[in-house]
Automatic annotation (TrEMBL):
Residues 171-182 have a biased composition (Low complexity). Residues 183-192 have a biased composition (Basic and acidic residues). It is found in: Membrane. This is ABC transporter ATP-binding protein.
Length: 192
């Protein structure tokens, strides 16, 4: 829940401004200008209005954008997006994923996505680590891992998530005879 990361009694703009002041040493007025720039950068309409609102006055998608703005305010080289689209409707989820991809492209920010949603992983990740009980069981280029999973756990994950249409987010496999995830799922029907 994005709201749980923000102080409910302080306007969101003041919270972003505080991070900017602490991390960059800017004075209040300059930090406010930078906060408004960040609110614009995360595609919030009417950043001046949003700046002066409390968290409870904003939607989940808007709050997620505010958290992203706050995170990039410090100028990190790496952004960890831990379940960044959980509990958001499909439209807002797509907007947040597009925003993260856009930030990555524009700023060179390294993006680490933690997600149980393989469609999210397929859409925004170049490489993937599959973990089970805290251990890495498979690693590689996203399309390779999702089309050619080697570990049984990865195969089961893909089979379980196939209904969400992973294919639309992935480039076709290099081998035109490769059946891809749908056929692999059929092969796994007997695996438990």
């Amino acid at each position: 829940d994005p709201a749980s990361y923000l102080n409910p009694s302080i306007k969101v703009g003041a919270q972003i401004t505080e991070v900017i002041q602490v991390k960059s040493g800017l004075r209040r007025r300059a930090a406010r200008r930078r906060a408004l720039e960040l609110l614009t950068a995360v595609h919030l309409r009417e950043p001046e209005l949003v700046y002066d609102q409390y968290p409870h006055e904003l939607s989940g998608g808007m709050l997620q954008r505010i958290l992203i703005a706050t995170a990039i305010a410090a100028g990190p080289q790496v952004l960890i997006a831990d379940e960044a689209t959980t509990a958001l409707d499909v439209t807002v989820q797509a907007e947040i994923l597009d925003l993260l991809a856009d930030l990555r492209e524009r700023t060179g920010l390294a993006l680490v996505v933690v997600s149980h949603d393989l469609a999210v992983v397929a859409q925004v990740c170049d490489e993937v680590l599959v973990m089970r009980e805290g251990e890495v069981v498979e690693r590689g280029a996203t399309a390779d891992v999702l089309y050619h999973p080697r570990h049984e756990y990865t195969q089961l994950l893909i089979a379980e998530h196939e209904q969400y249409g992973l294919d639309r987010y992935l480039d076709a496999p290099n081998d035109p005879n490769d059946p891809g995830p749908a056929e692999q799922r059929k092969e796994l029907d007997g695996v438990h």
